[in-house]
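pipeline stage [seq->struct] | target=precorrin-2 dehydrogenase | organism=Siphonobacter aquaeclarae | residues=191
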Amino acid sequence: MNQLFPVFLKLEHLHVLLVGGGNVGLEKLTALLANSPEARVTVVATYFLPEMQQLASDRVLLHERAFQWEDLDEKDLVILATDDRALHAAICEKTRRMRLLTNVADTPDLCDFYLSSVVRKGDLKIAISTNGKSPTVAKRLREFLTDVIPDNIQDILDNLTVIRNRIQGDFKEKVDQLNKLTEGLIHKKPE
Ligand SMILES: C[C@@]1(CC(=O)O)C2=NC(=C\c3[nH]c(c(CCC(=O)O)c3CC(=O)O)Cc3[nH]c(c(CC(=O)O)c3CCC(=O)O)/C=C3\N/C(=C\2)[C@@H](CCC(=O)O)[C@]3(C)CC(=O)O)/[C@H]1CCC(=O)O
Ligand SMILES: NC(=O)c1ccc[n+]([C@@H]2O[C@H](COP(=O)([O-])OP(=O)(O)OC[C@H]3O[C@@H](n4cnc5c(N)ncnc54)[C@H](O)[C@@H]3O)[C@@H](O)[C@H]2O)c1
């Protein structure tokens, strides 16, 4: 059974430390910014890929140097993506004591949280986890769901928001009406 607890984070309220500026670091930073363009991220690496340098901004700070313990100060989340496994283990030992949630690329056992595969259509977002079993299956499911979810889902969400704000009455009445209105939204496969 998958025991991971899913949440959706407001990264513009948090400060993420990313260590590593190579391929994996770039993948993680791209995922952070694709989902949360206003995320506050500090990236520390002895070397940065040029693509990574292009992502720098007033909210995404790049420091070209080796990791220092002070980098952990005032951070809310840590993502480790270097090629130095001993460094990852040492940092994890410290972040665990600090209760600073940490993700270590390619080392599920050291992770407090995993990044998910993400389906995005306007305001709709679906995060997929395979419990670390197969990121490739997560990717395939993302592709499938992106394909089958209608492109007009945003219109549906916008309409429902207007209706939701307009409906009067007590809470139960409101919930009943919204359930009725959306009854035919998903066409179940015939048995
Ligand atoms: C969702 C996604 C987000 C992201 O991180 O970008 C993600 N991996 C993605 C892709 C991907 N990663 C890898 C491949 C190559 C094929 C393969 O190895 O299987 C592919 C496929 C590809 O790129 O096509 C390599 C890999 N990944 C991990 C290991 C270590 C291990 O499993 O032991 C290794 C072996 C490294 C090695 O060989 O050394 C571990 C993790 N990867 C996770 C997330 C977490 C579990 C998520 C879940 O529960 O499903 C977890 C546990 C930790 C974490 O990283 O947070 C993203 C999908 C993006 C999309 O939607 O397109
Ligand atoms: N590239 C992939 O798709 C891939 C796939 C599977 C596994 N991996 C593994 O993941 C790890 C990272 O891969 P990569 O391709 O991003 O490597 P990379 O060599 O491109 O990048 C490593 C990064 O770590 C930084 N770094 C190393 N020591 C540091 C330190 N002390 N302080 C700060 N920064 C430091 C380097 O400056 C560089 O930016 C490797 O161990 C690799 O074997 C990578």
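stage status: PASS
auto-comment: The beta strands are 15-19, 40-45, 60-64, 77-80, 101-104, 117-121, 124-128. The helical segments are 23-35, 50-53, 85-98, 135-148, 153-166, 171-181.
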